[in-house]
């Protein structure tokens, strides 16, 4: 197996110049969620193993010839974000979208890994998964899982790797168990009685009630969920009123509830409803609450994670076995329900001074392509060594 690592990574090195050109081409002409047709076509052509099967409307599942036994799917995301690019590189985006989440790097790495695999020959079949709509809801990963294409292809394990500026260059995180949070988005509207701002005794002020609600929601994480596992309840948007001297009839808040443990979800949603309706009542208002489930917890398969750790060390990476965040990724849908999943995080720089994911200046160096590629190989070899239970 050491021999396979050596031959495969050497072949990846040889694929690198073309992969970096592809990265620049994808970056220069990004497509938003649901509109990834051109990117999918470009990447599939570069991969050179045919068009495969169309998945989730604009995605592709491309089986590579060769190998035997349960299939290992390697996944990369196709979509960019509605961000105006501010990097100033010659290959910057020419439209209103930007690859500000590193998906251009992931796609180029996947192509290098697959082309190299075709050249060296690998023992287990690979399914290259070009996944659309990672950045939006309903997510592409859920469509792919629900379509049954993974089960049909005989996929046992799905491997993904994501660039991560919060980890130092040369570090890859391979963490067993939950690494990204589940997400539910919520929308609250409080209805009161509006009127003249100078006569508060005649009103039921929804702005004041909503202000208290935003504060009170913080007790959900601090007092209702075991802090060892944690929860985050953040309001990202509030809306209400049109003038300084008029209290409106209603006001709304939009936020997300994030959890690291699936079994906390019922209690957290009950608590959310209790705080919303209780606060509204205390201010003489009524409340409407709407919940939209987004992603489940991203739960890495422990055997895949520990297997990948060994290969990453072998490949000269510093391995992080602790990195978790309350970010969310639709990769979570591949972890369970018939397939095992492993998401690796590839370090880009020290924590200070590197723009974060989704920042208009976010620009991983080209070297990240080879690091993501090696991480995918480590995941593949881990799946080979740790057969499905
Ligand atoms: Zn991303």
UniProtKB/TrEMBL annotation:
What superkingdom heads the lineage? Bacteria
Pfam families the record matches = M20_dimer, Peptidase_M20
Q: Which UniProt keywords apply?
A: Hydrolase
Q: Where is the Peptidase M20 dimerisation domain?
A: 185-279
- What GO biological process term is on the record, naming one? diaminopimelate biosynthetic process
**Any GO MF annotation of the entry:** N-acetyldiaminopimelate deacetylase activity
**Sorted alphabetically, which PANTHER family does this protein's record hold?**
METALLOPEPTIDASE, PUTATIVE (AFU_ORTHOLOGUE AFUA_6G09600)-RELATED, PEPTIDASE M20 FAMILY MEMBER
Protein known as: Amidohydrolase
Give the organism, scientific name. Amycolatopsis pretoriensis
